[in-house]
Amino acid sequence: MSEHTNYQRGEVNTKFWTGSIRLESQPEIEKFLNDNRLSEATGLIYLDYGICWAKMVSGRLITRKMEELEPKYIQRARFFNQERELHCWLKKEQEFAFRLRIDGEGEALNIIDADQYLLGVAEKTEEGFTLLQESQGKAGWVPVELGRGQRAVLKTRNYIDFAGDLVAGFCDHRLIEISKGGTEQ
User: Fold this and answer.
1) Which of 26, 136, 168, 183 is deepest in the core (most CB within 10 A)?
2) Are 87 and 98 in contact (CB under 8 A)?
3) pLDDT category, 165, cuts 50, 70, 90?
């Protein structure tokens, strides 16, 4: 196994549901996340013009530059913590489909949790976000505090279901957390 990927197998009770919602402002996003018990969470947001990491702290959405998040630019978003993930994607102008996955309730499924090391090492930390710098010069901010030279790890969960007696496959996946990894070798 590579030093850049760790995984664990197990079983978890889990359930999900889907729906759609219209979101026109950051306060509406915050309310939707709070209503779904994601007042403390990490967010990965795919915008028309790039990717933005965010975090929910005490029910408030925070981005590194403390800028207002405008739903009209969101293509897809994942807000997650240890217990749940809300995955939203754009259906049409400011109307989003979503899937809410909750662990700890529902039917038992086999899982594989995997640690994915993000590219780059910590360069500097500001206000709870760390700048990851790659050797090619590319950089990005992630919502975790790291020491200089540390790597960031994104933990994912992959759910396994069975179709018949002998056929198994992944039926869903979600993000769990972003945390400190090792240091650059």
Assistant:
1) 26
2) yes
3) confident
pLDDT above 90 covers a percentage of the chain that reads 76
What residues contact 175, with CB distance under 8 A and at least 6 apart? 42, 44, 78, 80, 85, 154, 155, 156, 157
Same domain, 53 and 114: no
Let me know whether 73 and 139 are in one domain: no
* Last-in-domain residue among 103, 123, 152: 103
Q: Among 59, 74, 103, give the residue marking a domain's end.
A: 103
Residue type for 43, please? G
Q: Which two tokens stand for residue 16?
A: 């999900």
pLDDT at 1: 38
Q: Are strands 60-63 and 129-133 parallel, antiparallel or unpaired?
A: unpaired
Count of structural domains within the chain: 2
- HEC letters along 129-159: EEEEECCCCCEEEECCCCCCCEEEEEEEEEE
More confident residue, 178 or 67: 178
Q: What is the pLDDT of residues 27-56, one digit of tens each?
A: 999 999 999 999 999 999 999 998 999 999
Model confidence at 2, pLDDT cuts 50, 70, 90, reads very low
- Bridging pattern class, strands 5-22 and 107-117: antiparallel
Q: Are 69 and 26 in contact (CB under 8 A)?
A: yes
